[in-house]
Amino acid sequence: MSGSRTKFIVSPGGRLKGTMRVPGDKSISHRSIMLGSLADGVTEVEGFLEGEDNLATLNAFRAMGVKIEGPEKGRVVIHGVGIDGLKASSEDIYLGNSGTSMRLLTGLFSAQKFDTTLAGDSSLNTRPMRRVTNPLSKMGASFKTTEAGTPPVTIIGNQRLTGINYDMPVASAQVKSSLLLAGLYADGQTCVTEPAPTRDHTERMLKGFGYPVQQTGNKVCVQGGGRLTATKIDVPADISSATFFMVGASIAEGSDIILRHVGINPTRIGVINILKLMGADIELSNESEIGGEPVADIRVRSTSLKGIKIPEDQVPLAIDEFPAIFIAAACAQGETVLTGAKELRVKESDRIQAMADGLIKLGIDAEAKEDGIIIQGGQMTGGTVDSCGDHRIAMSFTIAGLRAAAPITILDCANVDTSFPSFAKLAELSGLKILVEDN
Ligand code: S3P
Question: What is the mean pLDDT of the chain?
Fold first, then answer.
Protein backbone atom coordinates (compact mmCIF):
# COMPACT_ATOMS: atom_id res chain seq x y z
CA MET A 1 0.00 0.00 0.00
CA SER A 2 1.18 3.50 -0.60
CA GLY A 3 0.04 7.05 -0.07
CA SER A 4 -2.49 8.65 2.23
CA ARG A 5 -5.23 8.04 -0.34
CA THR A 6 -5.31 4.29 0.28
CA LYS A 7 -8.91 3.35 1.10
CA PHE A 8 -10.48 0.20 2.46
CA ILE A 9 -14.03 -0.52 1.36
CA VAL A 10 -15.74 -3.20 3.41
CA SER A 11 -19.00 -4.78 2.32
CA PRO A 12 -21.34 -5.66 5.15
CA GLY A 13 -21.71 -9.08 6.64
CA GLY A 14 -19.56 -12.19 6.59
CA ARG A 15 -18.09 -14.25 9.37
CA LEU A 16 -14.54 -15.22 10.36
CA LYS A 17 -13.42 -18.82 10.01
CA GLY A 18 -10.18 -20.77 10.02
CA THR A 19 -6.80 -20.91 11.69
CA MET A 20 -4.22 -18.20 11.20
CA ARG A 21 -1.02 -16.78 12.59
CA VAL A 22 -0.85 -13.00 12.62
CA PRO A 23 2.59 -11.36 12.23
CA GLY A 24 5.16 -10.94 14.98
CA ASP A 25 4.90 -8.71 18.00
CA LYS A 26 5.86 -5.11 17.24
CA SER A 27 7.26 -4.28 20.69
CA ILE A 28 9.42 -7.41 20.84
CA SER A 29 10.60 -6.95 17.23
CA HIS A 30 11.83 -3.40 18.01
CA ARG A 31 13.68 -4.54 21.10
CA SER A 32 15.24 -7.54 19.32
CA ILE A 33 17.00 -5.16 16.90
CA MET A 34 18.05 -2.72 19.64
CA LEU A 35 19.44 -5.28 22.08
CA GLY A 36 20.82 -7.54 19.32
CA SER A 37 22.77 -4.58 17.91
CA LEU A 38 24.32 -3.77 21.31
CA ALA A 39 25.12 -7.37 22.19
CA ASP A 40 28.41 -9.22 21.84
CA GLY A 41 27.93 -11.87 19.15
CA VAL A 42 25.31 -12.78 16.58
CA THR A 43 21.61 -12.66 17.46
CA GLU A 44 19.17 -14.67 15.36
CA VAL A 45 15.55 -13.56 15.29
CA GLU A 46 12.60 -15.56 13.93
CA GLY A 47 9.08 -14.17 13.55
CA PHE A 48 10.29 -10.56 13.19
CA LEU A 49 7.51 -8.16 12.19
CA GLU A 50 8.37 -6.71 8.78
CA GLY A 51 6.23 -3.63 9.29
CA GLU A 52 7.36 -0.09 8.55
CA ASP A 53 7.86 0.79 12.22
CA ASN A 54 10.21 -2.09 12.87
CA LEU A 55 12.04 -1.50 9.61
CA ALA A 56 12.62 2.08 10.80
CA THR A 57 14.37 0.73 13.89
CA LEU A 58 16.34 -1.75 11.79
CA ASN A 59 17.47 0.96 9.37
CA ALA A 60 18.52 3.21 12.25
CA PHE A 61 20.97 0.60 13.50
CA ARG A 62 22.22 -0.13 10.00
CA ALA A 63 22.90 3.60 9.67
CA MET A 64 24.96 3.33 12.87
CA GLY A 65 27.19 0.66 11.47
CA VAL A 66 25.46 -2.56 12.55
CA LYS A 67 25.44 -5.38 10.01
CA ILE A 68 21.92 -6.82 9.87
CA GLU A 69 20.92 -9.59 7.47
CA GLY A 70 17.29 -9.86 6.37
CA PRO A 71 14.49 -9.54 7.14
CA GLU A 72 13.50 -12.52 5.08
CA LYS A 73 10.31 -14.33 5.99
CA GLY A 74 10.64 -13.02 9.51
CA ARG A 75 14.26 -14.05 9.93
CA VAL A 76 16.84 -11.43 10.89
CA VAL A 77 20.49 -11.95 11.79
CA ILE A 78 22.11 -9.15 13.77
CA HIS A 79 25.88 -8.92 14.06
CA GLY A 80 26.09 -7.16 17.41
CA VAL A 81 28.72 -4.44 17.78
CA GLY A 82 28.84 -4.51 21.59
CA ILE A 83 27.51 -1.95 24.04
CA ASP A 84 29.99 0.76 22.92
CA GLY A 85 30.16 -0.16 19.24
CA LEU A 86 27.58 2.14 17.61
CA LYS A 87 28.92 4.74 15.17
CA ALA A 88 27.50 8.14 14.26
CA SER A 89 25.01 8.06 11.40
CA SER A 90 26.09 10.24 8.48
CA GLU A 91 22.49 11.51 8.15
CA ASP A 92 19.50 12.30 10.35
CA ILE A 93 17.58 9.16 11.20
CA TYR A 94 14.00 9.02 9.91
CA LEU A 95 11.64 6.95 12.04
CA GLY A 96 8.39 7.43 10.11
CA ASN A 97 5.33 6.85 12.30
CA SER A 98 7.09 4.91 15.04
CA GLY A 99 6.73 6.33 18.55
CA THR A 100 8.41 3.31 20.11
CA SER A 101 11.54 3.80 17.98
CA MET A 102 11.57 7.53 18.75
CA ARG A 103 11.22 7.22 22.52
CA LEU A 104 13.42 4.18 23.10
CA LEU A 105 16.20 5.38 20.81
CA THR A 106 16.20 8.81 22.44
CA GLY A 107 17.16 7.07 25.69
CA LEU A 108 19.65 4.73 24.11
CA PHE A 109 21.40 7.38 22.01
CA SER A 110 21.60 9.89 24.87
CA ALA A 111 24.63 8.00 26.13
CA GLN A 112 26.58 7.80 22.86
CA LYS A 113 29.76 9.70 22.03
CA PHE A 114 28.17 11.51 19.07
CA ASP A 115 25.13 13.65 18.26
CA THR A 116 22.10 12.03 16.61
CA THR A 117 18.98 13.60 15.14
CA LEU A 118 15.76 11.57 15.07
CA ALA A 119 12.89 12.73 12.86
CA GLY A 120 9.42 11.41 12.15
CA ASP A 121 6.38 11.81 9.92
CA SER A 122 3.71 14.47 10.49
CA SER A 123 1.99 12.36 13.19
CA LEU A 124 5.16 11.41 15.07
CA ASN A 125 6.34 15.03 14.93
CA THR A 126 3.36 16.05 17.08
CA ARG A 127 3.87 13.44 19.80
CA PRO A 128 5.09 14.45 23.26
CA MET A 129 8.77 13.78 23.93
CA ARG A 130 9.24 15.63 27.25
CA ARG A 131 8.02 12.52 29.03
CA VAL A 132 11.41 11.03 28.09
CA THR A 133 13.65 14.06 27.63
CA ASN A 134 12.81 15.47 31.12
CA PRO A 135 13.86 12.39 33.12
CA LEU A 136 16.78 11.67 30.75
CA SER A 137 17.98 15.25 31.30
CA LYS A 138 17.95 14.56 35.04
CA MET A 139 20.37 11.72 34.28
CA GLY A 140 22.67 14.22 32.54
CA ALA A 141 21.52 13.83 28.93
CA SER A 142 21.09 16.80 26.64
CA PHE A 143 18.59 17.41 23.82
CA LYS A 144 17.17 19.83 21.34
CA THR A 145 13.50 19.48 20.37
CA THR A 146 10.88 21.86 18.98
CA GLU A 147 9.55 24.45 21.41
CA ALA A 148 6.55 22.22 21.98
CA GLY A 149 8.88 19.42 23.08
CA THR A 150 8.11 17.34 19.98
CA PRO A 151 10.41 15.73 17.35
CA PRO A 152 12.72 16.19 15.55
CA VAL A 153 14.94 15.44 18.52
CA THR A 154 18.66 16.09 18.46
CA ILE A 155 20.49 14.10 21.08
CA ILE A 156 23.76 15.72 22.11
CA GLY A 157 26.55 13.19 22.49
CA ASN A 158 29.39 12.90 24.98
CA GLN A 159 27.28 13.46 28.09
CA ARG A 160 28.06 11.53 31.23
CA LEU A 161 24.92 9.88 32.59
CA THR A 162 24.20 9.12 36.23
CA GLY A 163 21.46 6.75 37.39
CA ILE A 164 18.32 8.22 38.94
CA ASN A 165 15.25 7.00 40.79
CA TYR A 166 12.29 8.01 38.67
CA ASP A 167 8.62 7.86 39.61
CA MET A 168 6.79 7.84 36.29
CA PRO A 169 3.77 10.16 36.25
CA VAL A 170 2.15 8.19 33.38
CA ALA A 171 2.04 4.42 32.92
CA SER A 172 4.24 4.13 29.83
CA ALA A 173 6.41 1.23 28.73
CA GLN A 174 8.13 3.52 26.25
CA VAL A 175 9.25 5.90 28.99
CA LYS A 176 10.31 3.05 31.27
CA SER A 177 12.26 1.38 28.46
CA SER A 178 13.89 4.62 27.34
CA LEU A 179 15.28 5.20 30.84
CA LEU A 180 16.39 1.59 31.28
CA LEU A 181 18.27 1.69 27.97
CA ALA A 182 20.01 4.92 29.02
CA GLY A 183 20.63 3.27 32.39
CA LEU A 184 22.79 0.60 30.72
CA TYR A 185 25.37 3.38 30.25
CA ALA A 186 24.83 5.39 33.45
CA ASP A 187 27.05 5.50 36.51
CA GLY A 188 25.28 3.63 39.28
CA GLN A 189 21.73 2.36 39.30
CA THR A 190 18.75 3.60 37.29
CA CYS A 191 15.37 2.76 38.82
CA VAL A 192 11.93 3.40 37.37
CA THR A 193 8.71 3.04 39.37
CA GLU A 194 5.51 2.78 37.37
CA PRO A 195 2.07 3.88 38.58
CA ALA A 196 0.57 0.69 37.09
CA PRO A 197 2.16 -2.31 35.37
CA THR A 198 2.99 -1.76 31.69
CA ARG A 199 4.40 -4.15 29.11
CA ASP A 200 7.63 -5.63 30.43
CA HIS A 201 9.33 -6.85 27.26
CA THR A 202 12.42 -4.70 27.84
CA GLU A 203 12.96 -6.24 31.26
CA ARG A 204 12.38 -9.80 30.02
CA MET A 205 14.59 -9.34 26.98
CA LEU A 206 17.45 -7.66 28.88
CA LYS A 207 17.50 -10.77 31.08
CA GLY A 208 17.40 -12.94 27.94
CA PHE A 209 20.55 -11.14 26.77
CA GLY A 210 22.18 -11.93 30.15
CA TYR A 211 21.80 -8.42 31.62
CA PRO A 212 20.78 -8.36 35.30
CA VAL A 213 17.51 -6.54 36.06
CA GLN A 214 16.20 -6.04 39.59
CA GLN A 215 12.43 -5.96 40.04
CA THR A 216 10.44 -5.36 43.19
CA GLY A 217 6.76 -4.58 42.90
CA ASN A 218 6.33 -1.79 40.37
CA LYS A 219 10.01 -0.77 40.56
CA VAL A 220 12.61 -1.93 38.05
CA CYS A 221 16.34 -1.17 38.22
CA VAL A 222 19.43 -1.72 36.11
CA GLN A 223 23.05 -1.09 37.02
CA GLY A 224 25.11 0.63 34.32
CA GLY A 225 28.30 -0.80 32.90
CA GLY A 226 27.24 -4.33 32.03
CA ARG A 227 27.32 -6.15 28.69
CA LEU A 228 24.76 -8.02 26.61
CA THR A 229 25.31 -11.47 25.16
CA ALA A 230 23.76 -12.39 21.82
CA THR A 231 20.86 -14.84 21.90
CA LYS A 232 18.13 -16.44 19.78
CA ILE A 233 14.71 -14.80 19.73
CA ASP A 234 11.41 -16.35 18.63
CA VAL A 235 8.93 -13.46 18.32
CA PRO A 236 5.36 -14.54 19.16
CA ALA A 237 2.40 -13.33 17.09
CA ASP A 238 1.29 -9.85 18.16
CA ILE A 239 -1.76 -9.87 20.46
CA SER A 240 -2.44 -6.30 19.27
CA SER A 241 -2.83 -7.56 15.68
CA ALA A 242 -4.74 -10.66 16.84
CA THR A 243 -7.19 -8.30 18.55
CA PHE A 244 -8.88 -7.29 15.29
CA PHE A 245 -9.74 -10.91 14.61
CA MET A 246 -10.72 -11.57 18.22
CA VAL A 247 -13.21 -8.72 18.08
CA GLY A 248 -14.28 -9.61 14.52
CA ALA A 249 -15.02 -13.23 15.46
CA SER A 250 -16.85 -12.14 18.61
CA ILE A 251 -19.23 -9.78 16.78
CA ALA A 252 -19.89 -11.71 13.54
CA GLU A 253 -22.45 -14.45 13.97
CA GLY A 254 -21.26 -17.93 12.99
CA SER A 255 -17.56 -17.09 13.44
CA ASP A 256 -15.03 -19.55 14.82
CA ILE A 257 -11.32 -18.80 14.48
CA ILE A 258 -8.07 -19.97 15.98
CA LEU A 259 -5.18 -17.52 16.27
CA ARG A 260 -1.92 -19.42 16.64
CA HIS A 261 1.12 -18.77 18.82
CA VAL A 262 -0.04 -15.41 20.18
CA GLY A 263 1.98 -13.66 22.89
CA ILE A 264 -0.08 -13.66 26.11
CA ASN A 265 2.33 -11.81 28.37
CA PRO A 266 0.26 -10.80 31.44
CA THR A 267 1.07 -7.13 30.77
CA ARG A 268 -0.60 -7.39 27.33
CA ILE A 269 -3.79 -9.39 27.90
CA GLY A 270 -6.12 -6.57 28.90
CA VAL A 271 -8.06 -7.12 25.68
CA ILE A 272 -8.80 -10.75 26.56
CA ASN A 273 -9.86 -9.76 30.07
CA ILE A 274 -12.10 -6.94 28.81
CA LEU A 275 -13.72 -8.98 26.03
CA LYS A 276 -14.37 -11.81 28.50
CA LEU A 277 -16.05 -9.34 30.87
CA MET A 278 -18.25 -8.37 27.92
CA GLY A 279 -19.20 -12.02 27.57
CA ALA A 280 -16.87 -13.07 24.72
CA ASP A 281 -16.20 -16.75 24.09
CA ILE A 282 -12.38 -16.93 24.18
CA GLU A 283 -10.46 -20.10 24.89
CA LEU A 284 -6.68 -20.45 25.28
CA SER A 285 -4.86 -23.70 24.51
CA ASN A 286 -1.33 -24.98 23.87
CA GLU A 287 0.06 -22.57 26.43
CA SER A 288 3.85 -22.58 26.57
CA GLU A 289 6.78 -20.26 27.15
CA ILE A 290 9.13 -19.34 24.29
CA GLY A 291 12.25 -17.29 25.03
CA GLY A 292 10.83 -15.86 28.25
CA GLU A 293 7.45 -14.88 26.75
CA PRO A 294 4.22 -16.88 27.33
CA VAL A 295 2.33 -17.85 24.15
CA ALA A 296 -0.92 -19.67 23.40
CA ASP A 297 -3.40 -20.47 20.66
CA ILE A 298 -6.56 -18.41 21.03
CA ARG A 299 -9.95 -19.70 19.85
CA VAL A 300 -12.75 -17.19 19.52
CA ARG A 301 -16.37 -17.97 18.71
CA SER A 302 -19.15 -15.47 18.14
CA THR A 303 -21.45 -14.64 20.97
CA SER A 304 -23.61 -11.75 22.07
CA LEU A 305 -21.64 -9.12 23.97
CA LYS A 306 -22.84 -6.84 26.72
CA GLY A 307 -21.70 -3.32 27.59
CA ILE A 308 -19.54 -2.90 30.69
CA LYS A 309 -17.69 -0.35 32.78
CA ILE A 310 -14.08 -1.13 31.78
CA PRO A 311 -11.96 -1.57 34.92
CA GLU A 312 -9.26 1.14 35.00
CA ASP A 313 -6.58 -1.36 36.02
CA GLN A 314 -6.98 -2.97 32.58
CA VAL A 315 -6.25 0.28 30.70
CA PRO A 316 -2.42 0.01 30.49
CA LEU A 317 -2.76 -3.71 29.72
CA ALA A 318 -4.96 -3.01 26.68
CA ILE A 319 -3.67 0.42 25.70
CA ASP A 320 -3.31 -0.31 21.97
CA GLU A 321 -6.47 -2.38 21.74
CA PHE A 322 -9.12 0.23 22.58
CA PRO A 323 -10.06 1.22 19.02
CA ALA A 324 -11.05 -2.42 18.37
CA ILE A 325 -12.67 -2.75 21.81
CA PHE A 326 -14.83 0.29 20.95
CA ILE A 327 -16.14 -1.63 17.92
CA ALA A 328 -17.02 -4.52 20.24
CA ALA A 329 -18.79 -1.97 22.48
CA ALA A 330 -20.75 -0.61 19.51
CA CYS A 331 -21.98 -4.16 18.82
CA ALA A 332 -22.75 -4.95 22.47
CA GLN A 333 -26.07 -4.66 24.26
CA GLY A 334 -26.16 -1.61 26.49
CA GLU A 335 -23.59 0.94 27.53
CA THR A 336 -19.80 0.66 27.69
CA VAL A 337 -17.89 3.24 29.71
CA LEU A 338 -14.14 3.81 29.56
CA THR A 339 -12.37 6.15 31.97
CA GLY A 340 -8.72 6.69 32.97
CA ALA A 341 -7.49 6.44 29.39
CA LYS A 342 -6.28 9.98 28.59
CA GLU A 343 -3.17 8.47 26.99
CA LEU A 344 -5.31 7.44 24.02
CA ARG A 345 -5.37 11.08 23.00
CA VAL A 346 -1.60 11.11 22.29
CA LYS A 347 -1.20 7.92 20.26
CA GLU A 348 -0.70 7.78 16.47
CA SER A 349 -3.90 9.87 16.41
CA ASP A 350 -6.24 11.17 19.11
CA ARG A 351 -7.86 7.76 19.35
CA ILE A 352 -10.77 8.87 21.54
CA GLN A 353 -11.82 11.57 19.07
CA ALA A 354 -11.06 9.58 15.91
CA MET A 355 -13.13 6.61 17.13
CA ALA A 356 -15.99 8.74 18.48
CA ASP A 357 -16.19 10.66 15.17
CA GLY A 358 -16.19 7.44 13.12
CA LEU A 359 -18.73 5.65 15.33
CA ILE A 360 -21.09 8.64 15.20
CA LYS A 361 -20.80 8.62 11.39
CA LEU A 362 -21.88 4.98 11.51
CA GLY A 363 -24.96 5.88 13.55
CA ILE A 364 -23.65 4.85 16.96
CA ASP A 365 -24.23 6.99 20.03
CA ALA A 366 -20.66 7.65 21.19
CA GLU A 367 -19.60 10.45 23.52
CA ALA A 368 -15.92 11.38 23.73
CA LYS A 369 -14.72 12.32 27.22
CA GLU A 370 -11.42 13.84 28.20
CA ASP A 371 -10.11 10.53 29.52
CA GLY A 372 -12.36 8.01 27.82
CA ILE A 373 -15.60 7.41 25.98
CA ILE A 374 -19.20 6.29 26.52
CA ILE A 375 -20.62 4.06 23.80
CA GLN A 376 -24.22 2.80 23.51
CA GLY A 377 -24.44 -0.45 21.59
CA GLY A 378 -26.61 -0.28 18.47
CA GLN A 379 -26.90 -1.04 14.76
CA MET A 380 -24.06 0.36 12.68
CA THR A 381 -25.06 1.86 9.35
CA GLY A 382 -22.60 2.19 6.50
CA GLY A 383 -20.70 5.34 5.68
CA THR A 384 -17.29 6.91 5.22
CA VAL A 385 -14.93 7.22 8.18
CA ASP A 386 -11.50 8.78 8.46
CA SER A 387 -8.74 6.69 10.04
CA CYS A 388 -6.70 9.89 10.53
CA GLY A 389 -3.70 7.97 9.20
CA ASP A 390 -3.79 5.71 12.26
CA HIS A 391 -3.25 2.02 11.52
CA ARG A 392 -5.32 0.77 14.45
CA ILE A 393 -8.28 3.06 13.68
CA ALA A 394 -8.23 1.82 10.07
CA MET A 395 -8.23 -1.85 11.06
CA SER A 396 -10.89 -1.35 13.72
CA PHE A 397 -13.39 0.20 11.32
CA THR A 398 -12.59 -2.56 8.84
CA ILE A 399 -13.82 -5.27 11.21
CA ALA A 400 -16.86 -3.09 11.99
CA GLY A 401 -17.98 -4.01 8.45
CA LEU A 402 -18.88 -7.47 9.72
CA ARG A 403 -21.83 -5.96 11.58
CA ALA A 404 -22.66 -2.87 9.51
CA ALA A 405 -25.89 -2.54 7.55
CA ALA A 406 -24.18 -1.08 4.45
CA PRO A 407 -20.59 -0.70 3.12
CA ILE A 408 -18.01 1.21 5.17
CA THR A 409 -15.30 3.19 3.39
CA ILE A 410 -12.23 3.89 5.50
CA LEU A 411 -9.94 6.70 4.37
CA ASP A 412 -6.18 7.07 4.76
CA CYS A 413 -5.27 3.44 5.41
CA ALA A 414 -1.67 3.27 4.12
CA ASN A 415 -0.30 3.29 7.65
CA VAL A 416 -1.74 -0.16 8.27
CA ASP A 417 1.65 -1.16 6.83
CA THR A 418 3.37 0.24 9.92
CA SER A 419 2.23 -2.68 12.06
CA PHE A 420 0.32 -5.23 9.96
CA PRO A 421 1.18 -5.18 6.24
CA SER A 422 -0.72 -8.42 5.53
CA PHE A 423 -3.90 -7.30 7.32
CA ALA A 424 -6.15 -6.88 4.27
CA LYS A 425 -5.06 -10.23 2.84
CA LEU A 426 -5.57 -12.12 6.10
CA ALA A 427 -8.88 -10.36 6.73
CA GLU A 428 -10.12 -11.42 3.30
CA LEU A 429 -8.86 -15.00 3.70
CA SER A 430 -10.69 -15.31 7.00
CA GLY A 431 -14.02 -14.07 5.63
CA LEU A 432 -14.11 -10.27 5.51
CA LYS A 433 -15.32 -8.66 2.29
CA ILE A 434 -12.62 -6.04 1.87
CA LEU A 435 -11.46 -4.11 -1.15
CA VAL A 436 -8.24 -2.08 -1.08
CA GLU A 437 -8.22 0.99 -3.31
CA ASP A 438 -4.86 2.63 -3.91
CA ASN A 439 -5.23 5.97 -5.68
C1 S3P B 1 4.93 0.37 23.45
C2 S3P B 1 4.34 1.01 24.51
C3 S3P B 1 3.01 1.66 24.45
C4 S3P B 1 2.23 1.24 23.21
C5 S3P B 1 3.09 1.22 21.98
C6 S3P B 1 4.25 0.25 22.15
C7 S3P B 1 6.25 -0.26 23.63
O8 S3P B 1 3.20 3.08 24.39
O9 S3P B 1 1.13 2.10 23.03
O10 S3P B 1 2.33 0.84 20.85
O11 S3P B 1 6.65 -1.08 22.77
O12 S3P B 1 6.91 0.04 24.63
P13 S3P B 1 3.23 3.99 25.72
O14 S3P B 1 4.47 3.69 26.46
O15 S3P B 1 3.20 5.41 25.20
O16 S3P B 1 1.98 3.62 26.48
Answer: 97
Q: Which helix (H) or strand (E) holds 179?
A: helix 173-183
CA of 382 to the centre of ligand 1 (A): 32
Q: Which helix (H) or strand (E) holds 227?
A: none
Q: Residue 392 pLDDT > 80, yes or no?
A: yes
- Is residue 265 in contact with ligand 1, taking CB distance under 6 Å? no
Q: Average of pLDDT values for 113-142?
A: 98
Give the pLDDT score at 1: 55
Q: How far is the CA of 240 from the centre of ligand 1 (A)?
A: 11
pTM here? Answer: 0.98
What mean pLDDT is predicted for residues 329-355? 98
- Name the residue ranges covered by the structural domains of the chain: 6-24+237-438, 26-234
What per-residue confidence (pLDDT) applies to 47? 98
> Does the active-site annotation cover 371?
no
Domain 26-234, CATH among 3.40.50.300, 3.40.1010.20, 3.65.10.10, 3.30.70.260: 3.65.10.10
Return the best residue to mutate from 319, 349, 395 for the ligand 1 pocket (most ligand atoms within 8 A of CB): 319
Q: Which of 53, 320, 350, 386 is catalytic?
A: 320
Topology of domain 6-24+237-438 in CATH is UDP-n-acetylglucosamine1-carboxyvinyl-transferase; Chain (3.65.10)
pLDDT computed for residue 291 by the predictor: 86
Q: Is 174 in the pocket of ligand 1 (CB under 6 A)?
A: yes
Asked if pLDDT for residue 368 goes beyond 80, the answer is yes
> Matching CATH topology for 6-24+237-438 and 26-234?
yes
* Residue 423 near residue 1 (C-beta atoms within 8 A): no
CB of 116 within 6 A of ligand 1: the answer is: no
**pLDDT tens digits, one per residue of 394-405:** 999 999 999 999
What is the per-residue pLDDT for 3?
58
Ligand 1 pocket residue status of 317, Cβ below 6 Å: no
Q: Is the pLDDT of residue 159 over 70?
A: yes
d(CA 161, CA 178): 13
Question: Can you spell out the DSSP letters for 110-150?
Answer: TTSSS-EEEE--TTGGGS--HHHHHHHHHTT-EEE--TTS-
pLDDT of residue 5: 83
Cis ω before 266 (30° cut-off from 0): no
What pLDDT sits at residue 4? 65
- Residue 65, classed as helix, strand or coil, is coil
Residue 346 Cα: closest atom of ligand 1? 15
CA of 406 to the centre of ligand 1 (A): 34
Strands 408-411 and 42-46: unpaired
